[in-house]
């Protein structure tokens, strides 16, 4: 009789690995809460048309500058209040998550793809090619990032896709440096040399033997860089060069409410808290992911845990 799929050794090992990672994540409460918040924000962004109580651009001038529900004159129809045009703040935050997260994800994919290709090329070829590409990276890193973004956006015109293109061009260098360093260190390893000896083409060596070792560090780096992209989008939109009305993002909401800071604090506070909570959650989860996927960090954490257990055991024995 054929074995069931659940009895296949590879499937059992993968299931145990997933359960082990989930157990480790549950032990790190900060990372677990961060992941839960990230999932919540992503779901709100995806299902914004169903979740948001109002359209983000719907104006009700008779309800302008309504405070949150728990304040005097607040209303349950606008839980987080309204802005100067009577637009619901909660709805704008939910819809703004869609624009902010889209810019972050697309930018990380574009910048990561470009940086990975250049880093693989520089690290594997080496020699003059490596020197030229790394000098290009050094030159671009020397430019102030936010100044370059503002300059290019001012020339091309503001917009979501312009912002994505500019952020991608100004953030690929960190991926290139990471990949180039890892490829340079693994270029002389026995399994890579063995692949070349048996006649594997360079493309096969790179994508079959080297690139899989880059997945974990690239994933961790992309998650961390995502927070920088979110902050950069907020800063550029705050200055008026990013997302433009009638579209909205968290940075644009903060910019729109700055003139009413002292009479309607909620216009700036809630979009700002959304940015802070998202960035903090991503950093907490990325820190756990970095430790979990790094064998050296796992060994250090295991050694610390064992040392704590020994001290507790000695303390109980002495008592």
Topology:
Layout: H1 9-27, H2 29-46, H3 48-51, H4 89-125, H5 127-142, H6 145-156, H7 160-169, H8 173-186, H9 190-197, H10 202-210, H11 215-238, H12 250-257, H13 266-293, H14 295-318
Helix pairs in contact: 2-4, 2-13, 4-5, 4-7, 4-8, 4-11, 6-7, 9-10, 11-12, 11-13, 12-13, 13-14
Molecular structure report:
- The protein has 319 residues and is mainly alpha-helical.
- The chain has one domain (34-318): MetI-like (MetI-like fold, Orthogonal Bundle), CATH 1.10.3720.10.
- The chain is 72% helix and 0% strand.
- It contains 14 helices and no strands.
- The chain has helices at 9-27, 29-46, 48-51, 89-125, 127-142, 145-156, 160-169, 173-186, 190-197, 202-210, 215-238, 250-257, 266-293, 295-318.
- The longest helix is centred in the middle third of the chain and has 37 residues, at 89-125.
- The N and C termini lie far apart (59 Å).
- 31% of the residues are buried.
């Amino acid at each position: 009789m054929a074995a069931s799929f659940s009895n296949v050794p590879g499937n059992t090992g993968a299931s145990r690995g997933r359960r082990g990672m989930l157990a480790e994540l549950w032990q790190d409460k900060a990372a677990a809460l961060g992941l839960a918040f990230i999932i919540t924000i992503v779901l709100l962004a995806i299902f914004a048309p169903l979740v948001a109580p109002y359209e983000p651009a719907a104006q009700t001038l008779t309800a302008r500058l309504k405070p949150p529900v728990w304040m005097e004159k607040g209303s349950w129809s606008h839980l987080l209040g309204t802005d100067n045009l009577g637009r619901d703040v909660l709805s704008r935050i939910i819809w703004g998550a869609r624009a902010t997260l889209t810019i972050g994800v697309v930018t990380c994919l574009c910048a990561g793809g470009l940086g990975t290709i250049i880093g693989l090329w520089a690290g594997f070829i080496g020699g003059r090619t490596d020197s030229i590409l790394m000098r290009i990276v050094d030159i671009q890193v020397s430019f102030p990032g936010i100044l370059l973004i503002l300059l290019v956006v001012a020339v091309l015109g503001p917009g979501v896709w312009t912002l994505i293109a500019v952020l991608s061009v100004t953030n690929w260098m960190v991926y290139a440096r990471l990949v180039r360093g890892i490829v340079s260190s693994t270029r002389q390893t026995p399994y890579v040399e063995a692949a070349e000896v048996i006649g594997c083409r360079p493309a096969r060596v790179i994508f079959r033997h080297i690139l899989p070792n880059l997945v974990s560090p690239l994933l961790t780096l992309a998650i961390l860089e995502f927070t920088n992209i979110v902050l950069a989008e907020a800063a550029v939109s705050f200055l008026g060069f990013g997302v433009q009305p009638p579209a909205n993002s968290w940075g644009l909401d903060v910019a729109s409410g700055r003139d009413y800071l002292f009479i309607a604090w909620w216009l700036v506070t809630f979009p700002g808290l959304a940015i802070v909570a998202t960035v903090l959650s991503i950093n907490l989860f990325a820190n756990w992911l970095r430790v979990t996927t790094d064998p050296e960090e796992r060994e250090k954490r295991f050694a610390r845990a064992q040392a704590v257990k020994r001290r507790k055991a000695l303390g109980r024995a002495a008592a």
